[in-house]
From TrEMBL:
A Pfam short name: AAA_31
Ranges in a coiled coil: none
Superkingdom classification of source: Bacteria
SUPFAM superfamilies, alphabetized: P-loop containing nucleoside triphosphate hydrolases (SSF52540)
Domain AAA as annotated: residue spans: 4-177
The protein's name: AAA domain-containing protein
Length: 263
């Protein structure tokens, strides 16, 4: 399977899902790839991080999922070249209830995405820290999943639950879904537990862990306020920028390897 739709998921909050979604999307768009970023967190962190107005109640992932508008009408420009966004709104909380009785409710996003897939090289889905019907829709619609994992003691919490969920999805709803990679985030070189967790993950999950890891860098916190993603700051000495740049190269390398294997 050559991945086009990639979910960034982990049901734990604050592990770097949104940061990874935004920096990967913006970085790949800067390299000329046509990117769609779908924000499926009702807290709309991606939408906010990119400085997109939250006025689009009828142009949002909520509107698309509940059928208020065709999904192609829910796409808004990000203001950055090659990058479109389907924003989120707090209404998305309601979708969890509104979709309970929908038929084939796990496949709603997957079916809708078919229409717009040809427009993009990659579609990233920033998932919320939960596993309700909206995130399940995101995973079912995806070809692969990137799992950001915080290099902290409690980072491992919930990891097994997510892997079990992926297994259930693979056996029942989405056999082709695979783990693109586990991304170690907020790595602190000076903390022994950070190094220990990284080593443990590499022993346990081997090739499934990206070679690239993201160090802890205060620039990420500044970028939330400035609404300029670290990857787009042009600060070439930024360790955060360098790390996401390396991640993009590793992602593209894996992608091209899959393409060559297919050919
Ligand atoms: P999630 O989407 O998983 O909840 P976020 O990407 O929003 O996580 O990150 C949570 C917080 O941590 C944000 O304030 C973000 O700016 C910060 N952050 C993310 N990655 C890093 C990092 N590598 N170093 C320092 N802070 C980070
Ligand atoms: Mg988030």
């Amino acid at each position: 399977m050559i991945p086009k739709v990639i979910a960034i998921s982990n049901q734990k909050g604050g592990v770097g899902k949104t940061t990874t979604s935004v920096n990967l999307s913006v970085g790949l768009a800067m390299r000329g790839y046509k990117i769609l970023l779908i924000d499926t967190d009702y807290q709309a962190s991606c939408t906010v991080a990119l400085g997109i107005d939250l006025e689009y109640d009828n142009k949002s992932i909520y509107a698309a999922l509940v059928g208020l508008a065709p999904i192609q009408d829910c796409i808004v420009p990000s203001g950055r070249k090659n990058l479109d966004v389907i924003p989120s709104t707090h209404h998305l909380v309601g979708a969890e209830i509104e979709l309970i009785t929908a038929t084939e409710r796990e496949f709603i996003l997957s079916e809708k995405l078919e229409v717009i897939k040809p427009l993009y090289d990659f579609i990233f889905i920033d998932c919320p820290p939960s596993l309700g019907i909206v995130p399940i829709n995101s995973l079912v619609a995806s070809d692969s999943i990137i799992i950001p994992l915080q290099c902290e003691f409690f980072g491992l919490e919930g990891m097994q639950m997510l892997l079990d969920t992926i297994k259930i999805l693979q056996s029942r709803l989405r056999p082709e879904l695979y783990v693109e990679g586990i991304l170690m985030t907020m790595f602190d070189d000076e903390a022994e537990f950070s190094r220990k967790i990284m080593a443990l993950m590499r022993t346990e999950f081997k090739d499934e862990v990206f070679d690239t890891f993201i160090p802890r860098d205060p620039d990420f916190i500044d970028s939330t306020a400035s609404q300029i993603p670290v990857i787009a700051t042009g600060k070439m000495d930024s360790i955060g920028l360098k790390a996401y740049d390396r991640l993009i190269l590793e992602f593209l390398e894996k992608y091209n390897l899959r393409k060559r294997k297919r050919a």
